[in-house]
Amino acid sequence: MHEVALAQAVWRQVGAEMARRPGARLAAIRLVAGRWSGADPESLEFALRLLVNESAWCEAAIQIRPLPLGLTCKTCGHAFEPPEMNLACPACGGRDVEVTQGRDLYLESLEIEESDGQTHPPRKTRRRRK
Ligand SMILES: [Zn+2]
Questions:
Q1: Cα-to-centroid distance, 80 and ligand 1 (Å)
Q2: Mean pLDDT, the chain cut into blocks of 10 residues (130 residues total)
Q3: How far is the CA of 71 from the centre of ligand 1 (A)?
Q4: Which residues contact 104 (CB under 8 A, 6 or more apart)?
Q5: How much distance in Å is there from the Cα of 68 to the middle of ligand 1?
Q6: How many A from CA of 32 to the centre of ligand 1?
Q7: pLDDT at 8
Q8: Domains and CATH numbers, the chain
């Protein structure tokens, strides 16, 4: 299960981010998974869900945005998104192509709700004391 290792790596990033915000609540985890990243989004979400459920932020949503494969033809420079299993350049028919998008898998953003002040000192306000 390749996705388990990926989920653990993502989860470490999330944990490091949350450690900097004590008392904050994690609302959502957003990932980008390229079609050629080697990760199955459903398996990844499942693996990540297991980790999230065991944490203090078990209510956090997981959103995985698939990124289509992008290719650039080395012969004519045409950039295109190939249909299934056909990697030939639609402009010149060349098969010498470079993958320019769709290989990455990364943490896009976290939705974090800051502490309501119960576990944190209250924020400074601009109001003057009487
Ligand atoms: Zn071409």
A1: 9
A2: 89 95 93 90 95 95 93 97 87 94 93 68 49
A3: 10
A4: 32, 34, 37, 67
A5: 19
A6: 28
A7: 95
A8: 2-67+102-113 (3.30.2320.50)
Q: What is this structure's pTM?
A: 0.75
Expressed in angstroms and rounded, the spacing between residue 88 Cα and the centre of ligand 1 is 8
> Which pLDDT belongs to residue 110?
95
Query: Residue type for 43, please?
Result: S
DSSP state of 16: H
Instruction: Name residue 111's amino acid.
Output: E
Tell me the C-alpha to C-alpha distance, in Å, between residue 63 and each of 29, 30, 50, 57, 114.
6, 5, 14, 15, 20
The pLDDT assigned to 127 comes to 52
Ligand 1 centroid to Cα of residue 83, in Å, is 15
What does the alpha-carbon distance between residue 106 and residue 123 come to, in Å, rounded to a whole number?
33
